[in-house]
Amino acid sequence: MTAQPRPLPTDVVEARLNHLIDRARRNRLLHEEADRFTTELRDLVRRMEDTEDERDRLATEAKILRARVNDQNAAADVAVSAVRLMNEAGAQRDRAEARVRELEAENARYEATLARVRQAVDAGPVGSCCAHLIRAALNPPAAPGHSEGAAGT
Q1: From CA 52, how far away is CA 37, in angstroms rounded?
Q2: Burial (CB count <10 Å: 0-12, 13-18, 19+), residue 62
Q3: Structural domain range at position 31
Q4: Burial of 117 (0-12, 13-18, 19+ CB in 10 A)
């Protein structure tokens, strides 16, 4: 298997072609120069075609890569949106849990009041003094650190 000769740099080929074109214009082109001119011109055309093919291939690859980048950007946007939604859902969960704790505390206060009312009704005498005991059970003394109206949150 014989090795292919390395192509000459474009500027060398161009210089040779310019020299041969100049000689052809002056009708001074020898037969061997005409052969060399034809060979170098064919080589230049082949290299140009190879360059165009490579350019087209690279343009196609660039288009594919741009599409991949766009897809990845879109996926990143979706991921960012998902993270935002997860953060928002976490904040809503935290608020809901805090509200559940508030409602549980309020329910515990109501249950304590109900227990005091039941105890007062079960233990109390019949008559006018019952209303007094029920009112006392419904208005328990304020717990330390709580003010009236704070339970409405």
Answers
A1: 22
A2: exposed
A3: 10-140
A4: middle
The separation between CA 30 and the C-alpha centre of its own chain, rounded to angstroms, equals 69
Length of the chain, in residues: 153
Question: Is the residue at 153 inside a domain?
Answer: no
- 128 — pLDDT class (breaks 50, 70, 90): low
Q: Any idea which residue has 């505390």 for tokens?
A: 105
Convert the pLDDT of each residue in 28-78 to its tens digit.
878 887 888 788 888 888 888 999 999 999 999 999 999 999 999 999 999
Q: How far apart are CA 36 and CA 17, in angstroms?
A: 9
Which residues touch 134 (CB under 8 Å, ≥6 apart)? Answer: 117, 120, 121, 124
Domain count, the chain: 1
Distance CA 130, CA 134 (A): 6
| C-alpha span between 73 and 69 (Å, rounded) | 6
What confidence tier does 79 reach under pLDDT thresholds 50, 70, 90?
very high
More confident residue, 129 or 121: 121
